[in-house]
Amino acid sequence: MRKALPEIGRPDYADHAEGYPKSEVDARHSVITIHTEDEIATMRTVCRLGREVLDIAGRMIKPGVTTEEIDIAVHEACMERQCYPSPLNYRGFPKSCCTSVNEVICHGIPDSRPLEDGDICNVDITVYFQGFHGDLNETFFVGNVDEESKKLVKVTYECLEKAIAKVKPGELYRNIGNVITKHANANGFSVVKSYCGHGIGRLFHTNPNVPHYAKNKAIGVMKPGHIFTIEPMINVGRWQDILWPDDWTSVTRDGKRSAQFEQTLLVTETGCEILTGRI
Fold first, then answer.
1. Which residues pair with 65 in a beta bridge?
2. Res 155 pLDDT > 90
3. Which helix or strand (DSSP H or E) is residue 85 part of?
4. Cα–Cα distance between 231 and 152 in angstroms, integer?
5. Is 78 helix (H, G, I), strand (E, B) or coil?
6. pTM (2 decimals)?
7. How many CB atoms lie within 10 A of CB 229?
C-alpha cells in the first residue's frame, strides 16, 4: 500500500490498521449537512483538485497502459497537490483510485493488466484536502471501441446530465432515480441498484443516500447548502452484480459491460453548481 507524505492531512481511517472510518460510522444517522459559505469555498477547492487529478489519469488511457500505472500517477498527482487520495486504506482498500474495466461496475482495484484496444475504463477519483473530500469519475474509451460500448457510455453520461438538471431546492432525493431509469431503459440499458450517490464533505460518505433507480425509498428533500454525488452505473445487460473474492470489485452478473459517470454537486438557491465540473 502506498504511503502519503507525512505532512499531508488525512482522514481518520488513513492510519487505522483496518481502515475503519469511525467518524463516518458515528454520523450514519445524522441529518443532511447544510454547509456554510466557508465550507463551500473549501469544497470548491478540493473538487477542483480532484478534477485536475482525474484529467491527468484520463490522459493516460490508451492500449498498453496498466491501471497500476494510472494509480501511481494518481497518487503522485495527489501528493503534488498536498491531497490525500481518499480511497487509500478506506476500509482497507489498497490503492489510491478505483479503475473499473469493461464488465466491472465499480471499485475495481488497479493492477498489472494492460488496457486493450476496445476496452472501456472508468477511473474514480476522490481527494481529501483541508478536511474535505471531493469525488468524481468518468468512463473512457481505450482505442477503438465497438458501437454498443459507445452508446452505453454516451447514454450513461446523458443519464447523469438529466439527473443533474433535476437538482434544485425542494426536489425529493428519491426522484433522481426516476429520470435516470427512464432514459437508461428507453435506450435498452439497465440501472445498477446495489450502489448509490451519497452526501460528501468532511466525510467521504454520509447522508443523503441518492439511489439511481426508479421507485426507490430515499429520504430527504434538497436544500441550499446540501452537497452530494450523483454517479449512475448503467449496464448493457441486467442490473444485477456479483462481488469478486477481493471483497471490492463489483462486476455485472451476466458479464456484459457497465459504464459510470459521477459529479459532486452543491444545491444552490436556484438550482445546483457542479463542483467537480471540467475546468
1. none
2. yes
3. strand 84-85
4. 15
5. helix
6. 0.97
7. 23
